[in-house]
Amino acid sequence: MIMCCFSCTKNSDEVTVSSVDIFTKIFPEDVAFKKTNDTVEVAAGEHAVFQFAIRSPFNLTNTTLSCEAFRDDDGNTIDSIQTGFVKYVGVGTPTDQRPHDALTSTTGLYPDAIVPEKNLLIEGGRTQPAWITVTTSGETKPGLYQTTLKIQGEERGYHFLKEEKMFIRVYPVKLVKPAFYNLNWFFDAPDKLKIFNNGQEADMFSETYWKLMEAIAGKMCEIHQNVAMVNPLTHIKFIKTGDKYGFDFTNFDKVLDIFIHAGVADMIVGSQLGDRAESDGWTANYVMKLPEEENGQTIIRYYPLEDPMVQNFYKQFIPALMGHLKDKKLDRIYYQHIADEPIDSNADSYIAIAKFIKSIAPEVKFIEACQSSKLTEALDVWIPILPSFQNQYEFFNDLLNKGTQVWFYICLYPRGEYVNRLIEWPLIKTRLIYWLAFKYRATGFLHWGFNYWTEHPYEETTVVDSYGTILPAGDSFIVYPDYNGGLNRSIRFEAMRDGMEDYALLKMLEKKNAQLANQICKTVVLDWNKYSTDACHFRQIRHQILEELSK
User: Fold this and answer.
1) How far is CA 456 from the centre of its chain?
2) Residue 345 dihedral angles phi and psi, to the nearest 5°
3) Computed from CA positions of residues 226, 231, 235, 237, in that sequence, does the dihedral angle turn out positive or negative?
4) Which of 110, 119, 184, 381 has its CB 3.0 to 4.6 Å from that of 450, i.e. a possible disulfide?
5) Which residues pair with 382 in a beta bridge?
6) Contact indicator for 367, 341 with CB cutoff of 8 Å
């Protein structure tokens, strides 16, 4: 008897692969997709992104994605390629005040995290998105590049192989970094360190802590973030002897060095020195944070500005901080938060703190997310929430005309028809954040939630914060822990990155033909909360921009 071993490969008709526009969020139950153009058009220095839907009536095991470098007819190549599967995440509490085009999953599962898994199991009767991100450099040669994506695995004991062509047209246009500030706040508290560390406790400034900082800085660079936020009250060690304070900047400097090395520190922002008095809620006046030692640990407590302990601490701390920054030649790019989101009713208490700090160190510059226009005595950089930017645009436009920086921010609000990066919103409305910034001349954008994870971020993306507020899915984080010392992207992360690149192209066109740039933008962003979200129209507009820049 002769026995032979062999493997059978078949091009199974039961396994279907569809090319799908990246703005389409693919759900497990989806079976039909609109045909999309298989050529992605980019400037040199942009990212080209592809999405495919994989489906079979039978389980697919050991499913993998692979492709060789993109190549043009002259032998030029693009080899920076990331392949991954889009992981479905849980949304336990649907968002209210939804837009007319909000997305609803019948399973409670939504596509969001991008995971570089190998040997994936795709359940029969369930559609699985694949996501391919290609990074071009500023030196990538113009031309038409192509490669083949191979999707392979096992189905009912057979090896299957599906091949899909991918094309990138690189225009003779090199992306130019715009003068625009982009900031997402990060979180490094022990509970977030524990999640990052796969449920294991980790101390501040431990080896795990510095891995988290490096992972955050690296991902921020990918999304074109260029503002680094540090926390002077936790990153600086305080040594108190009697009424005198000493300051150890070792960890503060190490955090700064990580962000500077990653290229995300065109501006440095110090986190808040104050907060609302807890007893009076949203309308409360502001009190100051004061670090105190308790059982060998530094505890932050809150006291009125007039308290002698507060006065004593800050009269020593602020000069030491600014002097240290000056020694490191970082004082000119450093801005300080005072307290988050001042409104008209507590603006006076905010201004009082600003005047106090200015009396100690007149060179301090202030930046704030705000919901009041009564802060002209205090702020150097204004960051109104989007509806305030809209409702008081005459005021903010006047500031812009005077050369003052005006950003805007979004968070769990606004909802309705406004742009946002919430998971239930169409993905294009995340990308259009930066188109809106261009239309209304904002000089920066802020979002508070880079990695404010739930305990199990893949299973539940809705957060209930310490005040009992429900934070909608997608508000509190755009990256996921990979539980192996790194971070995974999300499709919303990618949309924000690509939106920044769109903004750069619009600014380049504005320099060449301002009237045309504004006209083009108006066909996409019709008003503050009215947009053209048709993917085909969006591609046509980008095509027009690239063609104009090529002339």
Assistant:
1) 19
2) -70, -20
3) positive
4) 184
5) 368, 406
6) no
Query: Measured in Å, how far apart are the chain's first and last C-alpha atoms?
Result: 73
Give the 3-state DSSP-derived string for 397-442, with helices as H, strands as E and coil as C: HHHHHCCCEEEEEECCCCCCCCCCCCCCCCCHHHHCHHHHHHHCCC
Beta bridge partners of 170: 42, 143
pTM of the model: 0.96
The residue whose two tokens read 């006065």 is 311
Residues 4, 9, 14: CA angle, nearest 5 degrees? 140
Centroid of chain to Cα 221: 10
C-alpha–C-alpha distance, residues 121 and 295, integer Å: 50
Buried b (16+ CB within 10 A) or exposed e, 259-286: bbebebbbbbbbbbbbbbbeeeeeeebb
DSSP letter string, 30-92: --------SEEEEEET-EEEEEEEEE-SS-EEEEEEEE--EE-TTS-EE--EEEEEEEEEE-S
Rounded CA gap, 102 and 453, in Å?
23
Alpha helices in 280-361 (DSSP H): 308-327, 347-360
Closest CA to 355 of 300, 283, 305: 305
Radius of gyration for the chain, computed over Cα atoms and rounded to the nearest angstrom: 25
- Cis ω before 414 (30° cut-off from 0): yes
By C-alpha distance, which of 15, 29, 19 is closest to 51?
Answer: 19
Rounded Cα gap, residues 392 and 384, in angstroms: 9
Instruction: Bin 39: left if φ > 0, else alpha if -120 < ψ < 50, else beta.
Output: beta
Closest CA to 457 of 83, 188, 25, 88: 88
Q: What is the sign of the dihedral through the CA atoms of 520, 389, 102 and 489?
A: positive
Beta-carbon contacts of 430 under 8 Å, excluding residues fewer than 6 positions away, are 419, 420, 421, 492, 495, 496, 499
Residues 44 and 138: beta-carbon distance below 8 Å: yes
The residues with which 488 forms a beta bridge, in sequence order, are 480
> What sign has the CA pseudo-torsion 187, 493, 437, 178?
positive
